[in-house]
Amino acid sequence: MTEDTPRTGTHEPGSEPCEAEDSIPTFPVVASGSADLPPHHDHCLGCGPANPHGHQLRVRRDAHGVHAHHRFDSRHVGAPTIAHGGAVATVLDDLFGFLLYTVGELAVTRHLAIDYLAPVLLDTPYTLRAHIHARDGRKLHLRATIENDHAHVVTTATALFLIVDIDHFLTTTHQPHHR
Ligand SMILES: CCCCCCCCCC(=O)SCCNC(=O)CCNC(=O)[C@H](O)C(C)(C)COP(=O)(O)OP(=O)(O)OC[C@H]1O[C@@H](n2cnc3c(N)ncnc32)[C@H](O)[C@@H]1OP(=O)(O)O
């Protein structure tokens, strides 16, 4: 295992490991400077190389945060020739998830807001960037952009990720809130 390899969760002696536990990445801090970051896991919808339905994002750390180069394709179509807004949100949510390598914590999306400033076109190169705007205890306030190859920003996003411990992923008692 290298510094860049996500480690999987551990379990207490005497307790039974479970499938979920074995697939939970932890986030060793990757040193600043340009560096390839590992996928969250092989089947992650955003970045998993073994997910044929996914975006297979390849993300690098840089001096400001993280970035990726990406093309949406016909699997992600919404209006003809334009990427579906949900597909764009998926990619940005996942990109935010790579910032966890810069803080070395497990965290999940609590709030995600996107401004679709201009259509994101299929089969067109874009550069995606994300950075940590502020940290307030468990709260990570994150920002991202998508730029076309003329450096025009076509999408902006903000997110609130909340740091959780590994038990968040292991509990079987998650229940939706009922009104
Ligand atoms: C292993 C990681 C792999 C990464 C893969 C990356 C993939 C991309 C990321 C994802 O897709 S994650 C999956 C989607 N997200 C989830 O499934 C999370 C579902 N939500 C939850 O499980 C809980 O809501 C959560 C654990 C996030 C928070 O529950 P808590 O009960 O711990 O938080 P709480 O409601 O007490 O709020 C904590 C703080 O945040 C504040 N807060 C909550 N929502 C806010 C909001 N919208 N704006 C501002 N502040 C907000 C809240 O007021 C409070 O402030 P204080 O601590 O100061 O009192």
TrEMBL record:
Protein name: Acyl-coenzyme A thioesterase THEM4
Superkingdom: Bacteria
Catalytic activity, EC: 3.1.2.2
Main location: membrane
UniProt record similarity statement: Belongs to the THEM4/THEM5 thioesterase family.
Cellular location(s): Cell projection, Ruffle membrane; Cytoplasm; Membrane
UniProt cross-references to InterPro entries, sorted A to Z: HotDog_dom_sf, THEM4/THEM5_acyl-CoA_thioest, Thioestr_dom
GO CC entries: cytoplasm; membrane
Biased composition (Basic and acidic residues): 1-14
